[in-house]
Design a protein that fits this description.
CATH class of the largest domain: Alpha Beta
Order of helices and strands: EHEEEHEHHEHEEHEHEHEEH
Radius of gyration: 21 Å
Strand order of the largest sheet: 8-7-6-9-10-11-12
Largest sheet: 7 strands, parallel
Distance between the termini: 27 Å
Bound molecules: glyoxylic acid
Strand content: 15-25%
CATH superfamily of the largest domain: NAD(P)-binding Rossmann-like Domain
Number of strands: 12
Length: 320
């Protein structure tokens, strides 16, 4: 079986993925032959593409393609390629190591917002010795937008600390005994936001969620709330967020993702006193664990598991 590793890697990154993926495949799927973009492979023989945001048009040139495995968890850019072959199933990265990384970043952000650590950092610069009123965790409403693998991993670390954790999804989700109050649908969002002190965004980017965090959304939050965006920059209307920060309605924002990445040097977020900027680093795919995930998935598929039964199978209609 011929597999192509293709995407927008820099040369060192591609070499690392190549070495680790080849090693993982050698164990899990010995009949696999792994190619990278510059190799002299026969496009018609490629059955599987392992991709990291490949250049639009890349997959169209592979007439024998039967499966696409994304190395990234979010497939919004992949699905935006109008030449993506329509019938080919796509699976996206689902890696417990990535979920753990996301949970750690979200936990840090929630603790920092709850305990006022960003405000204390500002006060330190002014040599200001002043404490704010202390709130218990159960007095803090944390709303997770999105309850996929990552949202649930974040909930698992927040619930035991006593936070009042709610989860919001576009479509109703089955109840679960995990301490997360579930809310679904557009009508449920406003009332939920009114009781949310901290919102953590982990939604997939789809036409239905693009621009969700706009002036109306932010106005629905109580004054002094905090926003943590760990999903995609396009979920947020940046001008509306800046306005909400500038009026003090929103106290702080932790932003890992942006409409334009890398964040342009002149962007106001860089120097905004109420914004913490992370360079899209909340939960990077780790090639060590992710290569093993891909190899296991491809071995299961080669052994007859249908793509729809693989973890991370992408429903193209839904967009994730
Ligand atoms: C990172 O943003 C990913 O989609 O994996």
């Amino acid at each position: 079986m011929d597999i192509l590793l293709t995407g927008g890697f820099d040369p060192a990154e591609r070499e690392r993925w190549h070495v680790l993926l080849a090693a993982a495949l050698a164990g899990a799927l010995p009949q696999a032959r792994l190619w990278v973009d510059d190799d002299a492979f026969d496009p018609a023989r490629i059955a599987v593409a392992v991709v990291a945001n490949p250049a639009p048009g890349t997959l169209q040139r592979l007439p024998g393609l039967r499966l696409v495995h994304s190395l990234w968890a979010g497939v919004d850019r992949l699905l935006a390629d109008p030449t993506l072959p329509p019938g080919v199933p796509i699976v996206r990265m689902v890696d417990p190591a990535m979920n753990a990384a996301m949970a750690q970043t979200a936990l840090w952000a929630v603790l920092a917002l709850h305990r006022g650590l960003f405000a204390y950092a500002r006060r330190q610069r002014e040599r200001c010795w002043r404490a704010h009123a202390q709130r218990r965790a159960d007095e803090v409403g944390v709303t997770l937008l999105g309850l996929g693998q990552m949202g649930r991993a974040v909930a698992q670390v927040l619930v035991p600390l006593g936070y009042r954790v709610a989860g919001w999804t576009l479509h109703p989700q089955p109840p679960a005994a995990d301490g997360v109050a579930r809310h679904a649908g557009a009508e449920a969002l406003g009332p939920l936001l009114a009781t949310s002190d901290i919102v953590v965004n982990l939604l997939p980017l789809t036409p239905a969620t693009r621009g969700l965090i706009d002036a109306r959304f932010l106005a629905a939050l109580p004054r002094g709330a905090g926003l943590v965006n760990l999903a995609r920059g396009a979920h947020v209307v940046e001008a509306d967020l800046l306005a909400a920060l500038d009026t003090g309605h929103l106290r702080d924002a932790v932003l890992d993702v942006f409409a334009t990445e890398p964040l342009p040097p002149a962007h106001p977020f860089w120097s905004h006193p109420r914004v913490a900027v992370l360079p899209h680093a909340a939960a990077a795919t780790d090639p060590r664990s992710a290569s093993a995930v891909v190899a296991r998935r491809l071995a299961a598929w080669a052994a007859g598991t249908t793509p729809a039964r693989l973890p991370g199978f992408v429903d193209r209609g839904r967009g994730y």
